[in-house]
Amino acid sequence: MSLPSPEECLHAVQTRDARFDGRFVYGVLSTTIFCRPSCPSRPARPEHLRWFDTPGAAINAGFRPCKRCRPEQTEQSDQILERLSRWLIEHADANPSLDDLAAMGPWSPTQLQKRFKAWLGISPKQLLDATRSEVFKAALKRGMRITDAIMEAGFGSSSRVYGEPLRHLGMSPKSWRSGAAGEQIFFASTDTALGRLMMAATETGVCFAEFGTDDAALLAKLRQEFPNATLRESPARESSELATWLQALSDHLEHDQPRPNVPLDLRGTALQIKVWRFLLGTEIGSRHSYSEVARAIGADKAHRAVASACAANRIAILVPCHRVLSASGSLAGYRWGLARKRALLAQEALAGPALAQATTTQQNVVSD
Ligand SMILES: [Zn+2]
């Protein structure tokens, strides 16, 4: 909605015309307070007044809402959320907290978190992560609304893009440290070209894919990673998705089929998630040093932490930590043994281009 003319605004303020509430607010330069047109406070001198089409615009210009007429309450919930999101994106480098964000709007941090997720499909924290996505940045540059740009970039709950690996960016440190209390995790295992493989998934996606000697050892590992979850063996009929993913991963190892693109449930510290997300974006057949990954995630000196993040990866192959080598090109370590790492690298070096192409084809077919 466009701002009425300055004359109309001034007249509305002088007559405290409530019909203009919601159409504009006015800021008072001498007090840096802003009001709705009908505010019962005595209006300041006309030369001290400034007009804004929304409360958000007044707040951005440095005015505070009047405690008497509560002009910020004329702002629609969606407008507030859009404004807060813009603010968050503009200040992403400073990594603002939920409290910082809540201070810019009318809600408590908890309320904000809830409304934000309902509106955008992701949390403010996840929006911060999304600001690093090139697709998202490009969409915003083209003038897209944030809700649309988020979908375009493949984030957000309503975007059911098949195989979008960044759809689930993990959970808050608090909930993963709780060991997945109250959650059900389904698991299944199979023999693959690289040995016995167990895969497990939450409602969100695959949270575990590990090699081991036998099912008992693998189950013990799964239990250790998610000590408070209810673990359930998954007959194919109960979690057919899991069975499909496990088969696809096995086919990938056995028959050079494309690496399956499945939803992931990444759980870790902020730095671990950054490292794993970086790995998800690496090309088949590519190789990266620990310090290269550290630079890429903006933590130049953290190559040791990167190495630990790779070692802590519990989703083999799908989060391709096997592509990270020491600076000299030696294999360095691998959670599931150097023989497996060597085999995976050799497979990718041989079949890289073909697999990359096949992956693209697969996605195109599904999105048609
Ligand atoms: Zn007022």
Automatic annotation (TrEMBL):
CDD domains, per database record: ATase
Any single Pfam family the record assigns to this protein: HTH_18
SUPFAM superfamilies registered for this protein in UniProt: Ada DNA repair protein, N-terminal domain (N-Ada 10) (SSF57884), Homeodomain-like (SSF46689), Methylated DNA-protein cysteine methyltransferase domain (SSF53155), Methylated DNA-protein cysteine methyltransferase, C-terminal domain (SSF46767)
Entry annotated with the keyword DNA damage: yes
Cited SMART domains: HTH_ARAC
GO BP of this protein: DNA repair; methylation
HTH araC/xylS-type domain sequence ranges: 82-179
Catalysed reactions, semicolon-separated: a 4-O-methyl-thymidine in DNA + L-cysteinyl-[protein] = a thymidine in DNA + S-methyl-L-cysteinyl-[protein]; a 6-O-methyl-2'-deoxyguanosine in DNA + L-cysteinyl-[protein] = S-methyl-L-cysteinyl-[protein] + a 2'-deoxyguanosine in DNA
Keywords: Activator, DNA damage, DNA repair, Methyltransferase, Transcription, Transcription regulation, Transferase
A single GO molecular function term of this UniProt record: sequence-specific DNA binding
UniProt entry tagged with the keyword Manganese: no
Name of the protein: Cysteine methyltransferase
